[in-house]
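Hey, resending since the last one bounced:
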Amino acid sequence: MITQKERQAAADALLKAETERKPIVQPSRTYPNLELEDAYEIQALWAQARIAKGARIAGHKIGLTSRAMQMASKMTEPDYGVILDDALFNDGAQIRAELFIKPRLEVELAFVMGEDLEGPGTRIYDVMRATEFVVPALEIIDYRTEVPRAITDTIADNAAFGAIVVGGRIIRPMDIDIRWVGATLSKNGIIEESGVSAAIMGHPAAGIAWLVNKLHAVGGGLKKGQIVLAGSFTRPVDIVKGDVIQADYGPVGSIGVSFV
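The structure tokens again:
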């Protein structure tokens, strides 16, 4: 464990990295005793600083939902971060690439909560009951630290969250079998990735149930109107200024954005 003063210093450094678009040395290298509890506290301190500057928490994101990513990170469960309202974009947006350090894109589904949801013991059917809408989404992930990164670095860095893009067809959770939403991700007219939503822990709502129970352990939960990114079902694709992105979810619609 590290001290509260060190946690605050790490959060301040990450905030500076985000503002200046310059990655910092990994917190795990600066503070060798950094543990998961420290990392989530650093994330919370960073979020508090952003909120103090006018941002609002719009929801949450879940990462490391695939077994392959968990093994690569030496984890046995996902991680999570917060979504801020100034990092929300709509289908068709022209996004300034300079907002990020080294952005990458992932294909996901986003759940919009229709009611509050708290643990413990939350299960998939509780998530489905509490969800008002499910929409196609892209997550822009970004690193504010140098690489390679320990899992504590990723968590402290708000689980690598950069921004979210939503679009496509708005559906109710029972309209279709959301385990079998397929999508292709194209960059500049070439399909780079494809996947199906069942790759997210067997069911896109499984990660959200996990999140609700984790938030309960720290006195939190999901609120009506919040948006939750359920996790990626493709590998991340690098993006740079000038790239045009198209994510095709078939019957559930598509999302198109460009980076300028």
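DSSP finds seven helices and 13 strands in the chain.

Sorry for the duplicate.
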